Protein 1
Amino acid sequence: MDLYREGDPVADTKAPDGPIETRWERRRFEAKLVNPANRRKMTVIVVGTGLAGGSAAATLAEQGYQVKSYCYQDSPRRAHSIAAQGGINAAKNYRNDGDSVHRLFYDTVKGGDFRSRESNVHRLAEVSVNIIDQCVAQGVPFAREYGGLLDTRSFGGAQVQRTFYARGQTGQQLLLGAYQALERQIGLGNVEMNSRHEMLELIVVDGRARGIVVRDLVTGEIASEFADAVVLASGGYGNVFYLSTNAKGCNVTATWRAHRKGAYFANPCYTQIHPTCIPVSGDHQSKLTLMSESLRNDGRVWVPKAKGDDRRPKDIPEDERDYYLERIYPSFGNLVPRDIASRAAKNVCDEGRGVGPGGLGVYLDFADAIQRLGRKAIEAKYGNLFEMYERITGEDPYEVPMRIYPAVHYTMGGLWVDYDLQSTIPGLFVIGEANFSDHGANRLGASALMQGLADGYFVLPNTIANYLAAGPFDTVEASHPAAVEARRAVEDRIQRLLAVNGDRTVDSFHRELGQIMWEHCGMERSEAGLRKAIDEIRALREEFWQRVRIIGDADGLNQSLEKAGRVADFFELAELMCIDALHREESCGGHFRAEHQTPDGEAQRDDERFAYVAAWEYGAEQPVLHKEDLLFEYVHPTQRSYK
Ligand SMILES: Cc1cc2nc3c(=O)[nH]c(=O)nc-3n(C[C@H](O)[C@H](O)[C@H](O)COP(=O)(O)OP(=O)(O)OC[C@H]3O[C@@H](n4cnc5c(N)ncnc54)[C@H](O)[C@@H]3O)c2cc1C
């Protein structure tokens, strides 16, 4: 049987046309509104309390809707967004260095290797300026210059300085802002907060998303929750690779369960591999650590010119070093986008010029910057990152260059949504990293926080009204057949997992799955490798359902049960990722097919055949591919060059 079949194209029916600068304004004007008295009668479920979900829940409650919010952490402010380090982009042009909404739009479409929607990206660039104002008003302590103005720095893929930051803890400070807004609404009784609850199923009634089934992770109790609309803000799925920079809890279950209920999954193979992470140090590891891209503002990336040169870095003279990013990409130098920097690091390591154990590392050297600016200035900008690096590696980056290597970091794929951020299931909206919307085949640094907050504070609160204007919808009782079926599916699955009673830990399966994915669906993919991966994933999944061992029962806190459910979903997702990567016979952004490269080793797109979003419909036997064609009226697709 074929791996997939092709269905009808999918269209974004909400996307406005006309001049791009007016599209968002027009959509907002044309969309229906809900009057304040009616808002009070409606409930919205928001799954996730990261930057996307936290900002959305707070804003919807502020507007007057009743909100039920869920996260699996013990506090909403522990969502993975708290880990974000480097910064958030906005087209404020405070530096007067040539930035504009149009330039941010242009850089983002180009950075995504012409695989994103122009309308969405333009809206993102427009809204970016409001985000900074909103966060400053909340008291987010962005870094400031001596004169008191907000400071900015550079990130990859841009020649202007548009990244706002709060030392190396931007995500934390932004999340505290959103969390305060959320807590205020919790205090006012407009948000019902349910932490330590995991969504395990979506309830679809008469074709509309009307609720979720959750498990209380402390008591094990299963409950069905209902609402007029459901918003998923459940983050990305990079942990399908086991080793990634994501928090250990990040998983795909919320979106995968929705996918199985009819929501299309778009571009699942688009994975971002971040070039500056601390290299893997052994088999014992369960997590990788990011060294923020902001470090490439001042750090210089190099390897020895000679293969196998294992002298200490300080013993290698300048003329025997290869600052390869500066050499190959003189215009952007160390600030090329992540996909380009990651592949370049892989190439020099494949040539045998990598440094550190196993030769899987390159240097990120601050000696020049320290000499130019002084240690104090570097400490002020990156102090916490340097400290983190030293704690993990035992090496002092003020004295010896950091060693870095690419690692899985972000997933551009996610549930397909239209311009209103609504999935293919009416009433199911998807925001933040959980959707596929704005980054194409490669996300530029500092654009995830921008997108999450754009979605949560500004886009969704406007677009969801167009759907809710037809509400409130009929009450759904827990006895409704669709609700009973969803709840039973959760209970059966838990019992099925516990009943295996095998002899292998969940982690051992997850690690092996991650190795398959990294080997064949990681930085470089090939037809043969992907076919092999699909066979291996299927065999391992079968073994999982025969041999997995879960200790304890379902009646209380049971982390091995939680993990098993998530890994079971990762198996299904992994197969779809490989099928998606196999069918896309081109290279673009984070998806590099060995068979499709330019003579100098860059990604070779095939716009004739693949300028579309691949939106996959779930099929028990075979997934179904629906294509959404991408049109470029403002940024003409060209071979991306950062040279
Ligand atoms: C180390 C690191 C550094 C980064 N630095 C930057 C940066 O400097 N700039 C930038 O722009 N981006 C950065 N990123 C990316 C960015 O942090 C994320 O893309 C973004 O924070 C995702 O936000 P989110 O709200 O979509 O999801 P998350 O913050 O991941 O939140 C997901 C939420 O969903 C909940 N959830 C998930 N599944 C379920 C379920 N089944 N049931 C109940 N609740 C569920 C979780 O509890 C959580 O509350 C970084 C990423 C990493 C890993």
Protein 2
Amino acid sequence: MASQSPTTGAPGATDLPDYAPVPQSAYGPALNQQGYYVGRVERNLYWVTDGSYQSAFLTTKDGVVLFDAPPSIGGNIRRAVDEIASANGVSNKVTHLVYSHHHADHAGASSLFDKNVIRIGHEETKRLLERDNDPARPVPEETFADRRTLKIGGERIELEWRGPNHSPDNIYIHFPDHDTLMLIDIVNPGWAPISMSNLSEDIPGYIAAPAIALDYPWKHFIGGHVGRLGTRDDITLHQQYMADIDASVRKALVSVDPTPFFQKYYDNPWAAVSALFDAWTEAGAAPVIEKYKGVLAAADVYTSSTVFWVMESIRLDLGFASYVHP
Ligand SMILES: [Zn+2]
């Protein structure tokens, strides 16, 4: 029997499973006393992390342009900007904030910046933020539809929307003069995606996004998560991982026979479907976990969840193994 906390009766930590060790290469630089790290990406482009989330900013001759404001970094964004501005003798005034997408975990510290900040985002980000009506995430004053070039303080930033992926409004933020691409919640460099392909709404779009990312010229990748930046090799490894999941899921979908599930639960089709989904997921995930254990951190933690969601997309978006009653 599983152990329980003697005081609350709740499941205790002794119930928690152990996982494969995280490869050292998955970690980034150490955090400071306040719990953040700020570093140069290239020239006057910087990134800030708390080990799980990432934000970025450009120092320009007219002030600072901020890219995302994750609430978990929160007040440390201001501290990081101040630290870099004072070290370089440039303005610490944040004049612009660019939203990568509308999600609260990347934008929820937006309201920490004053009302004079110009917020910029995709038009769908604006629509979704109006819908969500969250005072922590003021709607962007400036929007764009497909692409927009920002020229701020002598710096060039290319914003582009290439269709839905992780979210309907997620954009590509390219810094052509800094050899950098910022694309949030698609690839976690060195790590497996978290739950259900990084909680992505559009799986065909999510799977296509890394190739679009690689079409841009860049050397440094800001993925929005984990404690380090990414490389082009990180994107390629992620693509291989997702391709292996795709192939493995297709194999599972045609090799696990649904008949016994519906025989056993003939009077409860939801029980049959639930058990069948579990069986497909397990068969699809096992070889991928085996291959990526020790290669992508937490592959053994999260692959099953991503396999489940990719499997549903392969069935429902692509119609693979769809059965038409004769
Ligand atoms: Zn998101």
Protein 3
Amino acid sequence: MTATTVPAAPAVPAPVRLDLGLYPELQRFGATDISACFSCGTCTAICPLSQSDGTFPRRIIRYAQVGMKDALLGSKELWSCYQCGECAESCPTQADPSEFMAATRRYAIASYDKTGLARTMYTRPVLATILAVALAVFFAAFMYQAHGPMNGETLAIFDWIPSELIHTTGILVMVIVVLAGLVGVGSMARAVGRREGVSWSAVLGSRAALRRSGRALWSSIGRESLGQTVFRAECDADPVAMAVPWYRRRWLVHALVVWGFLGLLAATGLDYGLALLGVKETGTPVPLWYPVRLLGTVAGASLVYGATVLIIDRYRAANRSVRSSTVADWMLLALLWVVAVTGFAIELALYLPSAPTWGYWLFLVHVATALELVLLAPFMKLAHAVYRPVALFFVALARTEA
Ligand code: SF4
Ligand code: SF4
């Protein structure tokens, strides 16, 4: 009997799963009516990001129309869009691809989150508002039950609410946030990596892979997320955006919010670190030029300005990107603004000759809303601060491989 060689069966592509409930589901997250989109490509022609991809953004719309949920959630391009709104103006069917992309990102955040909280925050605005208020009240009551004496001569805020309690609660909140963030990012990275055919070994498996990943990391975090390079370049190339005074341009205002938020987080962490090292107890009076205090003041001013302009622009629907708003948009802006303004007002109150009672209450509001803002970060729009760099990492990786 002779052995016969059976030719290898041709590889069968994995079947594409279609989810016919995808589009109605996206509509719950605020997706515009894309049923009339006939893939004409006008949005692609106008989008500043589509030079190297002749199917963006209409491909994302197509995924939604036919129910390709896995493709949608594994799409790195979804996060490249910075909602400039140019495509919305040119669409002949008023499908508003810009707003559709924003709604799809909300849906993606809710899908990567396994707790269901993000879904509630986006699809049940009344319950989300009640939850947000209840959480702030809970944090305020929790801090207040441990309060000490209210010094009437100097604003001794950490004698009133012990710094140890704030630090311990802050650490607990950070642990929850990091765990929720890791689950979400893991879920997203798996979906995008599978779709892009990027394995762990392609990212970390050799020196060349590590070098490539390092470059992609620098491009996504350093150049694009912190430096706002693409955002800035496209803003400066858009005549409508250029007509806005430089101090109101979207990229600058967005950058001020990002830098302000990160600066405040860094100042809080450094202050805690100095207390741990025994260099400076939390609450010890220091001059304005003391580095950690200076960082906190500059970051606070940056966040106050950025959040205020964002609120005014959204209220006035001042540009194409903020023509429609959700409760979640307002909630995030409100939290950012309250944290920034109360923090800044406490800084000023510390210079006043006597200790104003309102300074203590403002401090309580500040601590409660800051804890709430950080705790809700993975379940709100703020989560894009992590998902976007991950997606841009894959974009940069694909560019270096090409
Ligand atoms: S969203 Fe509008 S512009 Fe874009 S392909 Fe569809 S119909 Fe054309
Ligand atoms: S909003 Fe701007 S970046 Fe996003 S798809 Fe439309 S044109 Fe492109």
